[in-house]
Queue: 3 jobs
Job 1
Amino acid sequence: MSYSKRISRPYRWVGLLILGTESLLLVAQIPAVIPGAAVSSPQFQPTPEQIGDSLMAHQRYQAAIEAYKGAPRDSAQTLNKMGVAYQLLFNNEEAGRCYSAAMKIDPKNSIAINNMGSIYMAKKDYSKAERSYRKALKLDPKSALFYKNLGTALLAERKYEKGWLSYQDALSLDPTIFDHSTSVRVENPASIQDRGAMNFYMAKSCVKAGMTARAIDYLRLALNEGFTTPKKILADAELAALRSVPAFQQLLASQGVYLTPVAASPAALPSVQQ
């Protein structure tokens, strides 16, 4: 499976990273490709960081790392970007070193602190990940991304209600935080049970935010991953608003639970003779 397919697959247990350019605020977007006109200009001399950003946009992560190595080594922003490139190559050790170096240069760099949290998540050190995300939130309390990552760490620690509350905070700041197509995502080796928990509480958060279709998608995943059952779903007051939704009824029907009367088949109807 290619790196790009593994990174972009939707609805997976993921950690979100931030590259840390001035033009990016809450989501981990790939930097824009250097405009072709500027590249062709004889007067334009791209910096190593700009070259690295362009290579990142084309998913040439190893080449991007080599380009970033040519940038000044006292730049927390460049070190963070290099860490993201290493992590997208699944080299978490080098990624962690880059994030640590960035934090030494700039201890209040919330972006590097958030990204370090994703390293702890990959190592299943969820308590350290939680602390990283909380520290990042103290520096940037309006980041939907940080709340989302904190919620994921809390769910991994089985702190389900707290995780759900963090997801709600994330959605209140950015209703689209769970489906940013431009986010840099790195899969974490969480258990099926943990992914099921995440999907179940994401469903509850989506119901609260009025995103019915997405909530049903997450419930389907939670059911498939064995975290919940139709009985538990029907007993959950937060999910009661879905009962009149046909797609929700169809989901439960696929599990053998019918909220509406099942139409009798023609063979079961009384027959008459004329």
Job 2
Amino acid sequence: MFRKSKTSLRKITVALLVIGFFGCVVTDWRASSAAEEKGKDFGHPSDAVDAKKIDAIIGRSGEMKDDVYKIGLPRTDLKVKSDGVDIKPGLALGSWMAFKRVGDHAMVMGDLVLLEIEVNPVLTKLEESGIEISAVHNHILNEQPRVMYMHYMGHGDEEKLARAMKEALSLSGTPMGPAPAGAPAASTTDWKKVQDALGVQGRERGGVLQIAVARKEKITTADGMEIPAFMGTATAINFQPTDKGAAITGDFVMTAGEVNPVIRELRKAGIQITALHSHMLDETPRLFFMHFWANDDAVKLARGLRAALEKTNSAL
């Protein structure tokens, strides 16, 4: 009887040891799988893109911020007029491309300023290179010559993406190569009252006050990659001095429920709505981009823009 009990006890002990062993194996496997999945998280890029390689291909340097490398290519070749205003490149004629490392590859997205005759040649070349088009539309009204804006997104090796962008842009008049020597002349405008009325600080570039206001929530693509504000998800507001005060344009970045409250505030301030559309295809939350225009007293316009910003989930 004692021997049987001893044998049974030994069997139970062995069984418990076996169960414990396999339990540890499963736990280790789960931990390993979780770590592996975490490593795939598009919200945690492994490193930054190789800016030097991109510069060598595009022929122009950009700015690195929040792991995003952004190159501006203003259409300094164009002479565009709207509402009696000669539009500076920094107000509404700025093409750009932004690169970001996403795990084992890079992505590029941005906005190209194109004449109507340039749209389809550039679009076709981008499509042939595997870069997707996400929008083609206007930003302003009644301008001469007519200008269109093309938004895009691509994934792959950063060198291949940069070459694809250069090849496509070569089919337009976009100035490539190094930026002209010497900074464009700054305006003589004191922007302090404007920035105080907006409650947001900006910076002057090429005689234009440029202001970016990020949203509070995280913006992601369908595959979970975060799109930082510097990559095109911030509300953009630009002021250019005029005889009336300032011409303003840019775009509000909004969720669906914010669109009409923002429209109402802008119209109260006498600011025209010039376009309402999307810039991306699969972002979360779904965003709408609304472009605007006015030429009036700068501080008055700044107050109207502030009232509109307060109707959004902006980081004010």
Job 3
Amino acid sequence: MIRPLCKIAAVVAAGASAAFAQTPPANTALPVDSVAALSWLNGCWGGKVNQRDFREQWMPLRGNTMLGVGSVEFEGKLASYEYMRIEARPDGVFYVALPSGQKEAAFKLVSATRNEAESHTTFVFENPAHDFPQRILYRRGTEGWLYASIEGKTGGKDQQVTYPFRRIDCENGEFIRN
């Protein structure tokens, strides 16, 4: 009686492991060798948190480069701005930022992953030698959402700032419903 139960258990276990092996991974790595993977950024993005109104505008991909500009407004005044580009170089794809009053800094695209379960794609750019941030993340969410995060260490402590953006009309700043 024990032998038939062992055989049944072995068949069930084999079937379960085969089904588990066929389950797709939650995260799928995407190629990180093309600026075109970020062409969805084209257009205007806006958000508001803690009385800060922030925007980014990205031009269409041209010459294997995307150009962008970002700004933060606080209490009706321009608090900061930044010129940005995403470009292909011989050693990879780079996010290059030139913030107001600072030197240009380049961050290499080190990973791009698609999470099917949560329906988002995350692009991670890194520059460990930079003061802050050392990482820039762009996460493309659903329904027109974009989450841009900067993170790293300042004064030996981990810091992270996330900017929740929605696609907006470039002229009037109104949210575009997808």
